[in-house]
Amino acid sequence: MAVIRSLGPYRWIAAGYGLAVVVLIVWTTGLAIDMLSQSPPARHVVTWVGLDIGLIFAFVVAGWLALRRDPRLGLVAAASGTAVLLDAWFDVTTAGPSWLSDSILLAATVEMPFVLVSAAVAAWAYTRRYRSSNTFDESTTSGLGVADASSAEVAVASSGRG
Q1: Which residues of 81-111 are buried (b: 16+ CB within 10 A; e: fewer)?
Q2: pTM of the predicted model, to two decimals?
Q3: Domain ranges in the chain?
Q4: Which of its termini does the chain have fewer beta carbons within 10 Å around, N or C?
Q5: What residues form the membrane-spanning segments (predicted)?
Q6: How far is 44 from 31, CA to CA, in rounded Å?
Q7: What is the pLDDT of residue 98?
């Protein structure tokens, strides 16, 4: 329990993505059942259910990265928010006349707020990762955060701290 408390904002981010996973699993299951029960079954059932399964995967990864305090959280949060934005766009633009108002309402009240929160998480994670560095260092731009010794020595020597 002490580990969870020490995570601070990360635990709230992980809990938010966890809640999104649960809600999306319920939504996707209902969507699949509804689309498959139509006669004939809806043509785009694989498209919409597949997209939602991809979102579930992205949310699980984001929650896991938050619990680990992994600096890649910002990247996954940005990608998740972008995917939800695209989902909202296609929900609204492909909705039939009888579903258009529902699609707009869902986009405005659920999907767009999630996009904004994901953007805020991405920005927060980015600033948290880079705020302590006041000089450019190649090790902060490397995908794994690892630079060779010579570039690290050059960065320290050129900053006057060496």
Answers
A1: bebbbebbeebbeebeeeeeeebeebbeeeb
A2: 0.74
A3: 2-131, 137-162
A4: N
A5: 12-33, 45-66, 73-92, 104-126
A6: 11
A7: 87
